[in-house]
Amino acid sequence: MGIGWGFIGASTIAKQWMVDAVRAQAGHDVVAVMSSSLERGRAYAEDMGIANAYDSIDTILADPAVDAVYVSTTNELHREQVLAAAAAGKHVLCEKPLALTLDDAVEMVAACRKAGVVMGTNHHLRNAATHQAIRAQIESGAIGDVVGLRIFHAVQLPSNLQTWRIHKPQAGGGVILDIVVHDADIARYLLGQDPVDVMAYAQHGGMAANVEDGSMTIMRMPSGALVQSHESFVVPFAGTGLEVHGTKGSIFARGVMTQQPAGEVEIVTCDGRRLLEVEHHNLYMVSLAKFAKAINEGGEAAVTGEDGVKSLAIALAVAESSREGRRVTVTYPA
Ligand code: NDP
């Protein structure tokens, strides 16, 4: 079935990854883009070969060629735009964090359910061949009972993105809403559990003025496994990765907390040390393929709206813990 996508937000991520990801699906195309500036939207549309540009949510949603929307505006705008799209009967793929508050995110998911449209959260990492291979090893029991997961996600925020993320708390800036949500999602995906509580510190590492630009967290899982994560905007040379430690083995993944289809995964058990065979694929194209399948055949997006609510719940608990200097129980909506 042919699907026309309206892109709400003339963003960097849409340009770098999502237009191509949509166009990789048979019969799918990006037919319209919405920017708060018509001039910018038109220039973006011309650059990306998109037929129409609009400067209001009502006009893009009224375009009969738009069947689904991808929302990648700054985070404070997601709620209102997703609610409008759901009310117009459009399928919704929304960027993370879904919203700035849990109530808002829950409202967005409920609106999409009520409208009967597919809703997804664009956490990309679950779609990586590396993470899928790691999960398969954990599920097979190859490393025994998992007792610890350590996530290394400290990077240098590229200069072209040193805008609202480091200057605008009201837009959902800061490393916690930007990166902790991804780490929370991958912890849930790999271990198949939802953190019970968190203890976290945040820091000002010199880049962001009035939001945090670094954080370290420990999450406690229902099984007793501990998850440790480190996020930063100011660390150029750490490299990303994760380690999963179990009672019978360990997994070391390097270069895997990234948008690129890249990285390597090594497993160490009493049988020795070996690299897993991983066939890399484009993470966003896999996400869109699952979304397209959900539209055509029913089923769910690769990462659902409910998953987006949970990753936000964890990130908000991390923010609260770092602010108040105490352990915070993660509150998941019923
Ligand atoms: P950008 O800063 O590139 O875009 C956000 C908004 O800023 C755009 O909607 C646009 O507003 C405005 N904007 C962008 N570039 C310019 C410019 N040159 N001049 C003026 N205004 C500009 O943000 P990102 O693409 O980095 O992030 C967008 C969303 O995607 C966020 O929610 C973020 O968390 C998420 N994200 C997700 C990733 C993932 O892998 N899942 C990776 C990166 C981001 P307008 O539309 O009004 O023109």
Describe the structure.
With about 325 residues, the chain is an alpha/beta fold. Helix content is about 35%, strand content about 25%. It has ten helices and 15 strands. The protein has helices at about 10-25, 40-50, 55-60, 80-85, 100-115, 130-140, 165, 175-190, 285-295, 305-325, and strands spanning about 5-10, 30-35, 50-55, 70, 90-95, 120, 145-155, 195-205, 215-220, 225-230, 240-245, 250-255, 265-270, 270-275, 330. The protein has a nine-stranded mixed sheet with strand order 14-13-12-11-7-10-9-8-15. A six-stranded parallel sheet has the order 3-2-1-4-5-6, with helices on both faces. Strand 9 and strand 10 form a beta hairpin. The mean pLDDT is about 95. The structure holds NADPH dihydro-nicotinamide-adenine-dinucleotide phosphate (NDP).
Helix content: 25-40%
Small-molecule binders here are: NADPH dihydro-nicotinamide-adenine-dinucleotide phosphate
**Overall residue-averaged pLDDT value:** 97
β-strand amount: 15-25%
What general outline do the C-alpha atoms trace?
Answer: globular
Can you tell me the residue ranges where pLDDT is under 50 for at least 5 consecutive residues? none
Summarize the biggest pleated sheet: 9 strands, mixed
Oligomer designation: single chain
Number of helices: 10
Write the H/E string, N to C.
Answer: EHEHEHEHEHEHEHHEEEEEEEHHE
**Cα-atom radius of gyration:** 20 Å
* Spatial order of the strands forming the largest sheet: 14-13-12-11-7-10-9-8-15
Distance between the termini: 35 Å
Return the structural class.
alpha/beta
Number of strands: 15
